[in-house]
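Methods — Computational structure assignment.
A single polypeptide chain was analysed. Its primary sequence is given first, followed by the predicted tertiary structure written as structure tokens.
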Amino acid sequence: MNRLLRDRLAAASLDAWAVVLPTECSGCGALDRALCTSCRLALLPAVHPVTRDDALVWAALTYEGVARHAIAAYKDGGRTDAAAALAAPLRAAIVAALAAVPSLNGPPAGIQLVTVPSSRRAWRVRGHHPVDALLRRAGLHPFPALAQHGEPVDQVGLNRAERAANKCNTLVARRPLDQVRIILVDDIVTTGATLLEARRAVFAAGGIVVGLAALAETRRLLPR
């Protein structure tokens, strides 16, 4: 079966299923499939570098509009049917982070992808780690290097200083990371407190952070 025929059969199956059990698009809410065509186009990666303190993070999307709705639906609304559309931009951000690693010639052998572990509270609610699942959907493999130490409060509503204090010393390495090269991966970067804490924990265990990647960034408001 050629690829074109396979894609058409898959699309026809989804159309038939949508008639039997209508589904709202997780990007705009219209009755459609997991994501309507326009929302899929809105989730095409536009990888760009952002800085948080002294860290440069490669982000694939901006956390607003369709991206905001689709990511929230995937993480907290149980809409795992949007995973494929989100895995592609996350992979693109990681590819950009890999390309920016100094003196990286040939295949990036030996570089591990490390995600920030979910809090115990989030794990109880979701039952899985959303970023790990996206990596696997993208054909990549997370390296379980970090673990939660303590239970930070929810970051929503906290300012930059409060987020940094809330995340301080909340992550530890599961094992020694002597000279292991690591790219840290997260879903949303806002103030950067989570990725900066993950970087601290990796450094404390002897690892080397060679890049940071995120699915989306929350744009920071410029001071007036």
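Note: The chain has two domains: 1-42, 45-217.
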